[in-house]
Specification:
Structural class: alpha/beta
Bound molecules: S-adenosyl-L-homocysteine, iron/sulfur cluster, FE3-S4 cluster
CATH superfamily of the largest domain: tm_1862 like domain
CATH topology of the largest domain: pyruvate-formate lyase- activating enzyme
Mean pLDDT: 95
Number of strands: 19
Largest sheet: 6 strands, parallel
Strand order of the largest sheet: 2-1-3-4-5-6
Distance between the termini: 57 Å
Number of helices: 14
CATH class of the largest domain: Alpha Beta
Number of domains: 3
Oligomer: single chain
Length: 446
């Protein structure tokens, strides 16, 4: 008798870190003989890779989970897994809340999925949330794209921003060695991948935990050194990195990005607030003047560089005047894109306990005003592309117009143009921009 392979489904919430972890966990499952099922209801193993950055992200997980937990009463063979940041935050408490769960596993345990599942199939309910040295990845991720890929370079975060759960759920900083990173990139280059995004929650911290310092006391392995080390990997045409922290962003890094042709002119540098007192209360470790000077330096070397960032409105105690300072920063800098959020108090973070919390009305009013400004500024920034010739790396068909393909410019603007995906996927194409919108472009092949 031939056993039919079991089918799995993964739903991923949250940031690129989680997406990269999901791809590795999918690789492990396929290695174990599981097959992907697009519809979770046809799968007999369901994994939620969760996010707890804001309360609404966490609540979304519980509503998804509730539905599958019910299903388990009719299908006792269903395997239910919660991975990622909610799993780490809640641990055992998740089993009490949802007793149908088979496995609760924190992000540091992603590469151990096979071992953990074996314990589950032996009849155990497993919780894996203890801090560990992350096991170097030995499996082949099942990557969503054939063109662009994520490569983790540092896990965890040692910062203590007063609003943020990430250090609690992702643990301390652990850098991979330059050799392991390069080896992964070489493999990707051989497989035909063209673009790599190097990932870390605080990518500027890369290498601080690796041994070795220079004669001047500088760490031997920094993000800048890593860029020089991996830059010539054959086949890889573009390199990006995220997320940058203004506190550690160096001139040396800016010069490297300028000097190295594969490093794209796009920088994601969250500022969170444009007000110095709020920045201090957030424990961010820089002033708005420092932030502005970084952007000035980037634009001095790369005048056309795209800049994106994250910002929080309605942090505890934020006055109208302090919020206006955030608006002013956005007005002055002109971001190509800005991820905005209303402050959400998170368990286990200092700011959640302060009694200066703002009302939901104030927070959502500020969020709307900021978003409006972001749209206006992004539209203005898009204008500079009009009529220009841009290099687009083709990733996919335009799902809304099958005669078109889509990809990104070096500055990370989503761009559409007429073409056949069969012929163009993974190609770098010169496109003349004919239409601009705030966050995307349309053009024709030249
Ligand atoms: N490591 C990155 C960002 C990590 S979290 C950095 O240092 O900037 C992604 C974004 O979520 C943050 O940049 C911040 O803007 C937002 N965020 C984090 N905690 C939040 C909270 N409690 N409420 C609202 N937004 C939050
Ligand atoms: Fe969170 Fe701050 Fe670390 Fe970013 S740097 S992940 S905001 S603690
Ligand atoms: Fe969310 Fe965890 Fe990323 S909390 S934003 S998935 S690090």
């Amino acid at each position: 008798m031939i056993a039919t392979p079991r089918r799995y489904h993964i739903t991923t919430f949250g940031c690129q870190m989680n997406k990269a972890d999901s791809e590795r966990m999918a690789g492990i499952l396929e290695d174990m003989g599981f097959q992907w099922s697009e519809d979770p209801n046809d799968a007999s193993l369901i994994l939620y890779n969760t996010c707890t950055i804001r309360d609404n992200a966490e609540q979304k997980v519980y509503s998804y989970l509730g539905r599958q937990a019910k299903r388990k009463h009719e299908e006792p063979d269903l395997t239910l897994i919660v991975a990622g940041c909610v799993a780490q935050q809640e641990g055992d408490a998740l089993l009490r809340r949802v007793p149908e769960l088979d496995l609760v596993m924190g992000p540091q345990h992603a590469n151990r999925l096979k071992d953990l599942l074996e314990a589950v199939f032996d009849g155990n309910q497993v919780v894996a949330t203890e801090g560990i040295n992350i096991v170097e990845d030995i499996t082949k991720p099942r990557r969503d794209s054939k063109v662009t890929a994520w490569v983790n370079i540092i896990y965890g975060c040692n910062e203590r921003c007063t609003y943020c759960v990430v250090p609690n759920v992702r643990g301390i900083e652990q850098s991979r060695t330059p050799e392991a990173i390069r080896a992964e990139m070489e493999e990707l280059g051989k497989q035909g991948y063209k673009e790599i995004t190097l990932l870390g929650q605080n990518i500027d911290a890369y290498g601080r935990d690796l041994p070795g310092v220079t004669e001047t006391g500088r760490h031997l392995h920094t993000l800048t050194d890593l860029l020089y080390f991996v830059h010539d990997v054959p086949g890889i045409e573009r390199i990006r990195f995220a997320t940058s922290h203004p506190r550690y962003f160096t001139k040396r890094l800016i010069r490297a990005c300028h000097e190295l042709p594969k490093v794209c002119e796009h920088f994601h540098i969250p500022f969170q607030s444009g007000d110095n007192d709020i920045l201090k209360a957030m424990a961010r470790g820089y002033t708005h003047q420092k932030y502005r000077s970084i952007i000035d330096k980037i634009r001095e070397y790369m005048p056309d560089a795209a800049i994106s960032a994250d910002a929080i409105v309605g942090f505890p105690g934020e006055t109208e005047a302090q919020f206006e300072n955030t608006m002013k920063l956005v007005e002055d800098i002109g971001f190509d894109q800005l991820n905005t959020a209303a402050y959400s108090p998170r368990p286990g973070t200092p700011a959640a306990l302060w009694d200066s919390q703002l009302s939901e009305e104030v927070k959502s009013d500020r969020l709307q005003r900021l978003n409006h400004l972001v749209g206006v500024k992004a539209a203005a920034r898009s204008q500079r592309y009009s009529g220009r010739i841009e290099e687009v790396l083709v990733e996919d068909q335009n799902p809304k117009n099958l005669h078109q393909v889509m990809g990104r410019t070096r500055g990370n603007r989503l761009t559409f143009f007429d073409g056949d995906i069969g012929a163009l996927k993974g190609e770098l194409v010169k496109v003349q921009i004919t239409e601009v919108r705030p966050f995307s472009l349309t053009g024709i092949v030249v």
